[in-house]
Amino acid sequence: MTEAHTPAAAHDSAIACDLFCAVIDNFGDIGVCWRLARQLAHEHGWQVRLFVDDLHAFKKLCPALDASRATQSVEGVLVEHWHEPEHAGETLQIADVVIEAFACELPPVYVAAMAERVRKPVWLNLEYLSAEDWVADFHLRPSPHPRYALAKHFFFPGLGPGTGGVLKERTLDAARADFERSPDARAAWWQRATGGPPPGPDATVISLFAYENPAVDDLLAQWRDGATPVVLLVPEGRISGALARFFGEPAFGAGTQATRGALRAHALAFTEQRGYDPLLWASDLNFVRGEDSFVRAQWAARPFVWHIYPQADDAHLPKLDAALEHYGRTLPEAPRAALERIWHAWNGRGTPDWAEFARHLPVYAARANAWAAELGQAGDLAGNLAGFAKSQLK
Ligand code: TRH
Fold it and tell me: Residue 43 catalytic?
């Protein structure tokens, strides 16, 4: 059977959307898709089905999910376990809008059914985020299918105008403002996360979410030997082994705390996805990675250091520099150079210099605020995507 989820397909409130997500590794693929799915459902009233091939990775971000179920409704999104490459739901229903995330390949039976649909679906390939200039030129370019009368559009997230923008929920700024203006919310967060009160104002609070990183030992030593206290918050993950080695602990799992010199470190539990933002808001500086946490750090309007997802042949380095170009554009020479140095060192080029970087933290804090406003000019990705899809459905 080839039909839309609902007969009245093109009304805004009844737009049916199928979003396909193949988890390559880590949490970014599903992190972006889950956020987009919820936004399309909650903010645009779409009926969203999310096909995911790895429910265990998904469950880390969304503990309410039952990883053993083939189909389930979670927060208004129908989640389907995408078992086999050719599988696309029990009955083959084709949505009004079909999104393949990060060039994951749609099941051939599904594509064939898309071609048979009387009213052709809007077909989008959601690409990875890149700050490079060429992105705006390729955003929304159509690509005709070689065999079927179908065209796929490439949807490029980006940091500048003319791109698809990045995801931002309508409620995000208000939630951050509530957290920031409430000492009680902050104290409650610290109690939950670390079992103790927030540190005093003299401490620099740093969250550390990163891949394995050769520069981490150097940085930990500089924090330990520094003149001002550093409180480090480390969600359990790929960097935890380095922390355990540094502190001489068998492991650095949630609940572990350790102090050396001026450095105090807390290992935190990996939280559900919504719980990650308050960690960014509670910190003065955030080390982030991949794609989604990189974006969240920008909306948190705090200084951050990005561990970009490493690619073969160092293909990620021009992307790192393109982001630096945008973000550092208005910075004076000295803070700009110090920012570049620490971002490069954190991505395998050179050595970090904490004292040099920390000197400019107030400048970065001001820039982070201004940058969040600039970034907003590209618009929210979910809104941009919904607007484009609707224009095509008319
Ligand atoms: O996990 P990442 O490194 O993800 C990736 C993938 O490797 C992917 O293949 C790659 O292509 C992409 O990056 C660029 O980093 P990212 O994108 O920041 O995703 C992490 C997600 O985990 C993000 O949605 C925030 C979430 N998270 C939580 O939900 N709870 C937590 O405690 C933490 C620390 C993060």
Answer: no
